[in-house]
Design brief:
heterodimer, A: mainly beta, four-stranded antiparallel beta sheet, 11 strands, 52% strand, B: mainly beta
């Protein structure tokens, strides 16, 4: 019973490099979300998806892109990483708008 | 974007004490939820509230959906060491959005 799986768990990038974070859920949930967590800021929504093939911007979308080509996967891309994107990234999925299941996070450091 | 104001930001208590924290907003919310995050993990849902005035318990935890729909409270009775972590409130706004807004979190530390 995997739930929501995020890969990788840790990553260090140099400024300007690109990378993709993968979120996979095995619960057949419609909704998927990407949040970032920074000290004192709580969880801020980057992008979200309300179904396969759909994406929408959240509160802090700049510098990120997402894709949901398959229902079970939600990818978060950083085209040109910046130190301000150093954060812990959480993916979540839900069948309703409320019952989020979170992954265990990806800790990203941009140097 | 819409923010939830959660307080206190941190708490240092003795084991066995009761804990209270709250979340407020200038906007009305349809749903209030409380999550707990253990170190190195993602948040886990503790309690969900769907109606103004609703009072719901989950073991030693009790949460209330404020009458004005602009606030919510979480109480933990007789705290134990495993209660340590960060507690987040979250709410779904009235308009649109199959998405939640989160508070800044309350970090709970317990001295045995």
């Amino acid at each position: 019973n995997a739930g929501v799986t995020q890969t990788p768990k840790f990553r260090v990038l140099k400024t300007g490099q690109s990378m993709t974070l993968l979120c996979a859920q095995d619960m057949n949930h419609e909704y998927m979300y990407w949040y970032r967590q920074d000290p004192g800021m709580g969880l801020r929504l980057i992008h979200y998806s309300v179904g396969e093939g759909t994406t929408a911007k959240g509160e802090v979308p700049d510098g990120y892109n997402v894709s949901r080509l398959k229902k079970q996967n939600f990818l978060l891309g950083l085209e040109s990483a910046a130190p301000s994107q150093t954060s812990v990234y959480f993916c979540a999925s839900s069948q309703t708008p409320y019952g989020y299941t979170f992954g265990s996070g990806t800790r990203l450091t941009v140097v | 974007g819409q923010q939830l104001n959660q307080s206190p930001q941190s708490m240092f208590i003795q084991e066995g004490e009761d804990v209270s924290m709250n979340c407020t907003s200038s906007s009305i919310f349809n749903t209030w939820l409380w999550y707990k995050q253990d170190p190195g993990e993602g948040p886990v849902l503790l309690i969900a509230l769907y109606k103004a005035g609703e009072l719901t318990s989950n073991g030693r935890l009790t949460a209330q959906f404020g009458i004005t729909r602009k606030d919510s409270f979480l109480n933990i009775s007789a705290s134990i060491p495993s209660d340590v972590g960060i507690y987040f409130c979250a709410g779904q706004q009235v308009q649109g959005a199959q998405k939640l807004v989160f508070g800044q979190g309350t970090r709970l530390t317990i001295n045995p």
